[in-house]
Amino acid sequence: MTRSTAPRWRRPPMLRGGGFANWARTESCVPSQWMSPATEDDVVALVQRARVDGRRVRCVGAGHSFNALAAPTDIAVSLDNLRGIVAYDDTTVTVLAGTRLRDLSAALAARGLALPILGSIADQSIAGAIATGTHGSSLTHPNLSGLVRAIGLVDGAGVVRDLGEDDDLLDAARVHLGALGILTRVRLRVVPAFTLRERIEWLPVGEVAAALPEISTSAEYTKVWWMPHTPKALVFRYERVPAPRTLLAVHADRFIDEKILHRSLLPAIFAAQRRQSGWVPMFNRTAGRTLKKASRIGPSPLIFSTPMPARHTETEASVPLASGGAAFDAAVQVVDDADVHVNFITELRFVKGDTGWLSPAYGGDVVQLGAYTAVLGDRDRYFGEFWRRMRELGARPHWGKELDHAADELRTLYPRFDDFTAARAQLDPDRMFANPFLDRVLGN
Ligand SMILES: Cc1cc2nc3c(=O)[nH]c(=O)nc-3n(C[C@H](O)[C@H](O)[C@H](O)COP(=O)(O)OP(=O)(O)OC[C@H]3O[C@@H](n4cnc5c(N)ncnc54)[C@H](O)[C@@H]3O)c2cc1C
């Protein structure tokens, strides 16, 4: 895996002291300047100025990508001042591009609405989340970019483009990698607010692959977690239920998980495990036994999202649905084959196929399999072996996680790859929005 700096886990320079660092603190750089436009006109003006001056411009969302996709080398643009709902009706919402998913869900809830699906956390900006194909787990609903009905962006000439459903470029701009311009507005499909009940069941890890077809359709939302070095996996199913009278229990549960477990306890344990990785299997077995929880009931945004986890790093592969079982078994085998200690879950999620040219779910339903760890010493061996096996299955990488792919290989995985680069040439002919990561994955 390539990265711009050695991993560091402390003292984040994210947006502080002029530096940029991603959430995992595995990527950092110092842009020459930060800009925070407050209107679309400000965005137009800054792009036109940068063009005249021959500068490069890179948008940073919440910095939650695990790679250097967002890393700005010249002018860094934050859309933190471009947040909020612009318009909504019963089925769509138009939202400013810097809006965080958490704030969007709260604003929608106040209007009796919700996004039909969310990923595990809600700290990302909407433009940043769709940029990489951020997804939850369902064969009924696509990733967040699949909910997009229209996009407003400022292209490399400083011209505002409105891409609606009748525009071919909308499918280019769904999973946009920040390569086509600065998104200012996104229109998304919404649904009436709903309540979910989470149910958790244990399954021997060797039985998961065969059970996947049943698991995938057994509820509107389902996913599988496996804690490496343990014999059982957890199957999560989520079904719609009437709203409960009180949310006290689910909020108390969340408080303990987030403030005590993930913020204090796990970071201390992970620090010890980085010195003594041999402790990992024993710890995982103990942790695995405590993972089973009472079934939680609450508003969908609360139930979809997990507590903000302790710092770790992730890679993720997308394979056709039919290869999901083989991919899961291979990922389990990797932990033994690579002789690594892995202290974070392996997560299997289902994603409905969509039409985004660079979407990992382009063209059909997929299983997305995430390999996560906080044992930095073993990470490269773990992810390297994981990808050796996933490449055998023709997997596409998650754009927001660690990947060592380059344009030549990615072109073979995405049938519309060249159409995307053609759209990029049209919208950003001078490569104003490029950075070294994009140069590698898209070519320059
Ligand atoms: C703890 C954690 C949990 C996660 N859980 C999930 C999950 O459940 N499912 C999943 O799929 N992923 C998950 N991710 C990955 C994350 O959702 C993606 O990496 C997402 O793209 C990050 O969004 P962001 O707002 O932080 O964008 P950034 O990482 O800051 O940027 C991503 C890209 O968007 C571009 N960008 C941002 N704003 C704009 C704009 N206005 N105009 C143009 N380009 C822009 C950037 O230039 C960059 O190319 C998780 C990440 C973390 C750290």
Counted up, domains total: 2
Tell me which CATH architecture of the largest domain applies here.
3-Layer(aba) Sandwich
Distance between the termini: 20 Å
What is the name of the CATH superfamily of the largest domain?
A: FAD-linked oxidases, C-terminal domain
What CATH calls the topology of the largest domain is: Vanillyl-alcohol Oxidase, Chain A, domain 3
The CATH class of the largest domain is Alpha Beta
Strand order of the largest sheet: 16-13-15-14-18-19-17-20
Percent of residues in helices comes to 25-40%
Radius of gyration: 21 Å
The set of bound ligands, ions and cofactors reads: flavin-adenine dinucleotide
Q: What is the beta-strand fraction?
A: 15-25%
**Total helical elements:** 13
Low-pLDDT segments: 1-13
Q: How would you sum up the major sheet?
A: 8 strands, antiparallel
What does this structure look like?
With 444 residues, this protein is of the alpha+beta class. It has two domains: 85-192, Uridine Diphospho-n-acetylenolpyruvylglucosamine Reductase, domain 3; 195-397, Vanillyl-alcohol Oxidase, Chain A, domain 3. It is 32% helix and 23% strand. The chain has helices at 40-53, 101-109, 126-131, 169-173, 208-217, 248-275, 280-290, 300-304, 324-337, 376-392, 407-413, 417-427, 436-442; strands at 20-21, 28-29, 33-35, 57-60, 75-78, 85-88, 92-96, 113-114, 148-154, 160-163, 182-189, 191-192, 195-204, 221-226, 232-241, 297-299, 313-320, 346-351, 366-373, 396-397. The strands form five sheets. The chain has an eight-stranded antiparallel β-sheet with strand order 16-13-15-14-18-19-17-20. The chain has a five-stranded antiparallel β-sheet with strand order 6-7-11-9-10. The longest helix is centred in the middle third of the chain and has 28 residues, at 248-275. Bound molecules: flavin-adenine dinucleotide. Flavin-adenine dinucleotide (FAD) binds next to strand 4, helix 3 and strand 11.
